[in-house]
Amino acid sequence: MQTSSSATEAVRVYRDLARRPSVARAWINPAAKDVGTTDRKHVEVCSLWAQRDIETSKTAKFIRSHKISMTDRGVASSEVSGAPVDTSTCQLQQTSPSGKLSAVVRLLSDKQYLEIWDHTCKLKNVELQALEKHGKVYDDGTFGCFQWSPCERYLLYIAEKKTPKMESFFKRKDKGKAESGDAPVQGEEFVYQEDWGEGLVAKHHPVLCIFDIEEETTQVLENVPDEVSPGQAVWCPDGKGVVFVGWWHVPFRLGIIYCTNRRSALFHLDLDGRTCKQLTGDDLSVRCPRFSPDGSRLVYLQNPPGGPHSSCSQVAMYLWKEKTAVVVTDIVRQVSGDGFPGMYTWDTEIVAMYLWKERTAVVVTDIVRQVAMYLWKEKTAVEVTDIVRQVSGDGFPGVYTWDIGFLQCWAADSRRVVLHTNWRSRMALIIINTDTNEVKKLSAEGDVTAAAWRLLDIRDDLILAACSAPNTSQHLRCAVLPPAGQEHLVKWETLDVEVPTLTPPLDHKVITLTPADEGMEYEAILMRKRGVESPPMIVWPHGGPHSVFSSEFLPFTVGLCQLGFAVLLVNYRGSLGFGQDFVESLPGKVGTQDVSDVQHAVETIVGTEGVNKNQLFVCGGSHGGFLVTHLIGQFPDTYKACVARNPVINIASMFGITDIPDWCCVEAGVEPDYHKPPSPEVYTAMLTKSPMFHASKIKAPTMIMLGEVDRRVPHTQGKELYRLLKTRGVPARLLVYPDNNHPIAKVDAEADAFVNIYKWFTEHMATV
Q: What is residue 163's DSSP assignment?
């Protein structure tokens, strides 16, 4: 391959892929009767999309609208309503319960404005920081919320706590000028303030805030415990209180993004009595509380804190009057066949939950993830699904989700909950009957254009979901939920006339593998360009290590396949969606079990799938970078070149600089203990499990890509390997992307990385 022409072709392919938008969130507006009819109603579906704009190096955001006509028998028709509306300056947006008002937080020139709109015009516009009540409003999916009160007078949101003005001891003052406001604090401007780590830099202490639309004033809520950071707040149904998740600050603020195993609890803040009560126990990790309309139940996901950063969860329910908890689905330990592996997903942004009239509840998600529900009137918590340990056949594998959909999740019959979860190498839509604890798949099976499903909203039994597949980018589908027991009759409709499918399509398959040590089966997804004989293959293990590849549309892998490579995505033991025992099999064995699984997958595929065994390459990020650098060290003659993105290279040296030092301990098989420094034995265990231990055997040309402001795996990790390779004369290239953190996801950096990955591999084919 010619390098120059290869780069040109890679640019063309990536430009085409960048034009495909992805769904950020979507919602269903209230239904209305069609004029002149009695059996037909229409609803408006609004969806927020994100699209890479390579020319401006920014992400464009826009809202699309669809009109859906429905009858009692299902969806009758759908059509696009108007052109997309650009919302790139909008940080938060929420429609009021009645649908009459809309609130927007907009960022302009580093100032945040709160706008209130009705159907005709902008009613109000207030610069929030000018009120001097708090710092920046949070728009992230970890802490942030933006909620209308039931009366539609107030807005609930999260912001950074206001800090006092600070100045130097040596600042000169005008003695004749009187001080205005609070006097500045001297000598405090350089005091270190902990934040919440990767992706949440400068977010130190969030506070709960309420904006009064009529008075145009903001109140920061008091009586929240000082030792917790509040977030994911929701109104109580009567509007007289707030329920929120509080994350403990002890022993210190550990990085929280991608880590829903952080110790946390649900709290109820009574606005009338100005009291704050802890609703759940001290030794839990909970998230995403959501109320039902009548205020009787609270639903959430929960798991024990600590351990792997992601794993299987329980669905639990808290009964407000009885003050007791029950389990609906348990943690799945083992899965055989296509059994349900538990709840595992990675989405984090949720706005509201709707349950049933008789059983109002709040929904919360955690990481190993139980789904739990708190019954408000009964004052009782019940576990709707427990952590699944073992399952056979096509049984339920457990709950693996970071949320319970963006908006609503409950069926109109008040007994069934719709969720999405990782189910082995797919993302499935499931329905849980909270009376019988029965779990069923709801997503269409065998549909090649919809292998990965994600719940967006459900209202009056109209379900809205986002779908994709290796050959098909994200698109919207909707369906009317059939009565209980008839869920298999669900009929999905695509909202757009054409599904965005690749032409020509890629070939892809999920391959089941049995490890060499005869442990639990795992899977890999093989993708390749149709009609290409004996293609070179890129082996791509995921990061985490407790995450998973789903059979979904992934622009990088799709683009590399279009350029002639086969790509093997390996879900080694330790991945999500295969049961809790699968997850827990890996800690203490990183660098051996996961490496062995990936290598075994490669050797199996080379022998059975017709790829070129002399043109094998590896690429991965984070723990995936850990694995690919292990592979080129432990199997130095197998791989022709390597790309490692923000790789973990030396667990021992990472321990003192990462925002998640507990990860270093857990994955190395030692108990975190912050009361004393690690012993020489602990450091030895960390080092011997690291790629650095095998780095002197590396022969493969290696390109390392680093995000300059990565707090999760700081760039010194990659530089540690780069310096060793340069010293030993191994071809090495180092790319450092300014202002990029762990994902290296800014538009210009992502585009550059794609072309450089392709060039690096094609350049080193010449040595074959």
A: -
Any idea what the CATH number is for the domain that residue 149 is in? 2.130.10.10
Distance CA 50, CA 593 (A): 37
Question: H helices of 244-384, where?
Answer: none
The answer to whether residue 73 is domain-embedded is no
Phi first, then psi, for residue 741 (nearest 5°) are -100, -145
Going by C-alpha positions, the residue among 505, 488, 392 that lies closest to residue 446 is 488
pTM, two decimal places? 0.93
Question: Are residues 436 and 562 both part of a single domain?
Answer: no
Closest CA to 439 of 612, 580, 315, 565: 315
Using CA atoms, how far apart are residues 407 and 157, in angstroms rounded to an integer?
16
Contacts (Cβ under 8 Å, ≥6 apart) of 354? 292, 293, 407, 408, 409, 410, 458, 459
CB neighbour list of residue 447: distance below 8 Å, 6 or more residues apart: 469, 492
User: Closest Cα partner for 447 from 478, 423, 469, 422?
Assistant: 469
**Number of independent structural domains in the chain:** 3
CA-based nearest residue to 525, from 477, 561, 501, 499: 561
Beta-bridge partner residues of 616:
537
Question: Is the pLDDT score of 235 beyond 50?
Answer: yes
Dist CA 119 CA 375 (whole Å)? 36
Assign 3-state DSSP to the chain and report helix, strand, coil percentages, each to 5.
15, 35, 50
Do 253 and 307 lie in one domain? The reply is: no
- Total number of residues shown for the chain: 768
Nearest to 711 by CA among 199, 72, 125, 26: 199
198: its two tokens? 């990767």
Rounded to an integer, what distance in angstroms lies between the CA atom of residue 645 and that of residue 556? 13
Question: What is d(CA 303, CA 283) in angstroms, rounded to the nearest whole number?
Answer: 9
* Structural domain includes residue 566: yes
- The token pair that represents 765 in the structure block: 């084919």
The beta strands (E) that lie in 572-700 are given as 616-621, 641-645
What mean pLDDT value characterizes the chain? 88
Say whether 269 sits in a helix, a strand or coil.
Answer: strand
What is the Cα 126 distance to its own chain's centre?
A: 31
Examine the domain organization and report whether 541 and 423 are in the same domain: no
Residues 273 and 386 in one domain: no
User: What is the C-alpha separation between 543 and 399, in angstroms, rounded?
Assistant: 20
Angle at 582 between CA 580 and CA 586, to 5 degrees: 115
C-alpha to C-alpha distance for 338 and 730, rounded to whole angstroms: 44
Determine which of 34-43, 568-577, 681-690 has the lowest per-residue pLDDT on average: 34-43
Question: How far apart (Å, rounded) are the C-alpha atoms in residues 137 and 209?
Answer: 9
Are 378 and 319 within one domain? yes
Roughly how many angstroms between the first and final C-alpha of the chain, as a whole number?
12
Residues 6+ apart with CB under 8 A from 195: 201, 202, 203, 204, 253
pLDDT in tens, 20-57: 999 999 999 876 655 555 567 889 999 999 999 999 99
**Residue pLDDT, tens place only, 108-132:** 999 999 999 999 999 999 999 999 9
1 lies in some domain: no
Which tokens belong to 740? 């990029």
Contacts (Cβ under 8 Å, ≥6 apart) of 85: 62, 63
In angstroms, rounded to a whole number, what is the distance separating the alpha carbons of residues 391 and 596?
A: 25
| pLDDT value at 285 more than 50 | yes
- Residue 143 near residue 231, CB atoms below 8 Å: yes
pLDDT at 308: 94
Known catalytic residues?
622, 710, 742
d(CA 216, CA 263): 36
Q: Is residue 37 part of a domain?
A: no
Q: What is the pLDDT of residues 62-84, one digit of tens each?
A: 999 999 998 877 888 888 988 99
Range of the domain at 580: 506-763
d(CA 255, CA 663): 10
Q: Are strands 154-160 and 146-148 parallel, antiparallel or unpaired?
A: antiparallel
